[in-house]
Queue: 3 jobs
Job 1
Amino acid sequence: MAATDTYAEEVSRPGQHTWVQALVRWLCITVSLAFLAAVLLAPLATVFVMALSKGIGTYLHSFADPDTLAAIRLTLITAAVVVPINTVFGLAAAWAIAKFEFRGKSILITLIDLPLAISPVISGMIFVLLFGLHGWFGLWLQAHDISIIFALPGIMLATMFVTFPYVARELIPLMQQLGNDEEEAAITLGAGGWMTFFRVTLPKVRWGLVYGMVLCNARAMGEFGAVSVVSGHIRGLTNTMPLHIEILYNEYNFVGAFAVASLLTLLAALTLLVKTLVERTGYRRR
Amino acid sequence: MSFRSPSILPGFGLTFGFTTFFLSTIVLLPLAALVLSATSMHWSDFVSTVFSARALGSYRLSFGASLLAASINLVFGFIIAWTLVRYEFPGRKLVDALIDMPFALPTAVSGIALTTVFAQNGWIGRYLEPLGIKVAYTWLGVTLALTLISMPFAVRAVQPALLEVQRDLEEAAETLGAGRFYVFRRIILPTILPALLTGFTLAFARAVGEYGSVIFISGNLPMKTEITPLLIVVHLEQFDYQGAAALGLVMLVISFVMLLTINLLQAWGRRSQVRAAN
């Protein structure tokens, strides 16, 4: 065997083993932490240092700006509409896919995951192609005085597209793994479909549902590319928080930009906290 | 054979109908609009848009920087995953949770924060400046932003595979006299290879489409630091919907190829895991 030569060379001698392992261990931990510190921790710390660079008064004052408040409100409204809709969709999709066997199931799963593979810019552009002034329905919409692009409906559609798979892709594997036995028992004992869903299925999958909703919400509030394409960047009207950050930053209003960024960073930290707590309940990410 | 197997559970019609209806209106129909808009272009217009010098320059940057970022994450993602799985150290749980930060952090925030840190007078940029390394507003900055946002994909793909590596095999090999490097090359690497490649592809796929974090750090000079998604936005802002759709179609096709590759790699990973278990 050819491998035997290499094998003989690499036979370890006692004593040499431990310090090499200790060195590798030290090196791995140091490299990992240094990489994360430079690429992840330094930017995170910068957000707060920049936001507070002119003192806490200026920081708090930057939230009094009516355009900033409008951006926060728009982001909250968008998430409040998009997350529930995608949650209902996720539950329906998971029920259909996990509880039944039908042809073309794997194609359906792939199609649900599709938005994750698509550039955010394209996710926004497709709605401009449909509803923009020069788009397919542009003239019809204009004649009927309905605005979708550069208005709230466009922002919601684009956000819905990018966050579309989040709840479904958490619930589908979870419900498949948990099986149908309890649901079948409930139906056999005379429970109705809705009762079975609310009393049997929902409690079983609740942590997966929370997990998916939290991730969906984080993406909905933080989406930049897709929303940027459809929003039109009208201050106080169609600027979400991430878009408002861009405008403030480009105006060299760094305290303002990083103040809004600090809110989104806190939201991200909160998302991770909830995610970690949910994982601690025994619900594991596969 | 009927469309679906019989089941006593109710609600198939309702949930399947709602799922396909919602999927069609929100995802499939708009994507079809993109494909139709691009294909309704005259062939020569399509070619001149897709192969214009500016478009070619943007592909070079988008694909080059994404490949580089995915490669960086292949190396560092593995080291980080290895460290988290194999070593116990203070703060390990916190570091593990922080890996997902780029998932949760809005891209605009990553963009402005990275630019500030790596600008000439930034915390890290000021030490690179005397060395002649400019990060912000160059292709290096683009690569850095793409590295950050695609990092979790690489780490999270490798981590479960590393947990699957059978420690008793390693111990058996060591008992028989194999060195650590030999064990790594012959036992660990073959087990995690599909996961490494999956992580690489996922990171690359995410990086190619990224927009938010890049536009702040790139400087956005046509031909030099302009990524393809930004060029699409430029077309849209000039109301050149067809040009934007043409470039979008190119990126869409690439996304499909990536998705297919990822699925094949994951199938390979499952097969080799089954083989290892038997």
Job 2
Amino acid sequence: MNTNEIFEGTFIAGAGGAVSLEELLSATGLTQDEVEALVDFGVFESVRRAPLLFPADALVRARLAARLRTHFDLNASGMALAVDLLGRMNALEARIRYLECQLLK
Amino acid sequence: MKYKDYYSTLGVPRDAGPEDVKKAYRKLARKYHPDVSKETGAEEKFKEVAEAYEVLKDPDKRSAYDRLGYYQPGQQFDPPPGWETQFQQGFHDQGPGPGAAEFSDFFRDLFGGRFADDGASRGPGQRRSFSMRGQDVEATVQVTLDEAAHGVVREFFMRLPESAPDGRLRMVEKSVKVRIPKGATSGQKLRVPAKGGPGIGGGESGDLYLTVELAAHPFLRPADHDLYLELPVAPWEAALGAEVEIPTLSGKVRLRIPAGSSAGAKLRLAGKGLPKPQHGHGDLYCLLKIVTPPKLSQRERELFEQLNEASDFNPREELERIAP
């Protein structure tokens, strides 16, 4: 299927959007119990309790958690730990890039 | 059909036990998983490893695979008579398994199964109808700083599984044009809903996820929405102050360098960085780099010698005070 129509890409983080629980489950393949456990572990938070609504960037973390679960047989606590540590690693790498920008060659 | 040697992909002998297969997979998954690996080509390597494990961890799939015989990887071979019936009957009810859409043609030919309901040809209880959400597609999109500043349209070409009228899974070429809005920075993720793989058996379409990567720029370094420019200045420009012309993403601007500037000083031009997605811009920072002429003319040398004699400035005063 090829088309000349142009589709809009939407930034997931920082755009202020939100995703419903159904959308999060459908896009990640996680179960509701797993999503609730990830919320309990603080991997992401809901922005509304009833009905559940999540910030759009929860999608990125939840998809990462789902990939790690599938490929490494992780349970919820393992997913939470891995997502948290990978997030910290990415933040440190971003910090290194930021500091490198300020170095004279 | 081209043969794939799943045993050599996992690095295990053909008589390896399930525990050895699992261990080999875990080791390779840790090494090549694209979310944790920094190795080049990790994603492709991981797909091969995941496909091999998908087959070798499942006793039925492994046994069917073993019945094909042994060939060199990539070697053309003719499967044994009746293989199609054995394979398809054995595996089509399961669907191909999670992630199978990213597996090779070899895997799909063997284990791909059928997705559509055969309707009249199917007796009661023989097979359930199967529906599956389409595959999410992940891609990296490299954009220049100018494209990030203004937005750009990119076309993505994908090869995706689709259920054919006969119910078999087949690969189709598909292209999608996507507008990357202004304000992208490195590592940012975009989502294009329902533009991934088509749903199977009435399932909804998958999404297209894009990760932005900023291409290297000859003189601007991005840090989030701020930009950094290393600005070379002559020693006398740093000492006396100067007004210089500098390039920005929106054209050249004049920048005043204050008198008495030192190397590494950071001068900020507000709003001359990358635009942010919602509103506003990052800033442009100029880092002063003091550059002396690589070869002094006679006159320059005389003037520097005069300065050396006339000046009582001691740049190491602080160092001498704390480390006498």
Job 3
Amino acid sequence: MALEKEIETYHRKLSELLPNKGKYVVIHGDEVVGIRDSFKEALALGYERFLREAFLVREIQETDPVLVSSRSLRPCPLPTEQSPPIEGRPLNS
Amino acid sequence: MPVANGTITPHRGATIELLIGVNVSKRDALVRVGSPVPERIRVMAQIDTGSSYSAIDVQTLTRLDITPIDKIKVRTPVTAPQDAVGFDQYVVSIGLDTGDGVETLFDDVEVLGCHFADDEGIQAMLGQDVLGDCLFVYTGTCRTFYLAV
């Protein structure tokens, strides 16, 4: 899964990061690459260091935000067991 | 001020053609190392005032070689409150073809990567995060809308 390690690192180091609440952290693997005041600055730092690799940019907060949708969206990648059949086509085709 | 006038259709509602590209930070980094910047991709976007976020079909994001920068949980009408679904978050630029050229509306927009069904006829959705910086006039009686950024 994309960013699994980075998210784990974020949660593991959250208590150290919280004095910078409201700022943006850049994490690559196990490494906290830097903390920046703005989202744009954090993005720029991430691309400067890891142009071809995934990195995490997240606002430092005590709890993870949860968005609410009025519409049913399908995430990507879909877990295999949740993949809906394509309409009008047999499942085993 | 870039402006778009559109027609409201029975099934899709207010839709607008947008140009999705890499975000400005990635574009600058690619230029710095002499790598080509992926061409922007045209998508049909539905304007959805009921969604707090914007979303783009993951096929478009893949074609632009954009990787996620975070994962966020979303409660949808089909999930129990405690079972929010994880969506990958991406950062893109959004542009509008005004006829006289492409105007970039937003340099760095966080969007969710998701799947839209082919029969929906859209590849993106504009939510309150983007609409918060726009003037949107929905004239239902005339089946038209106006969007200005």
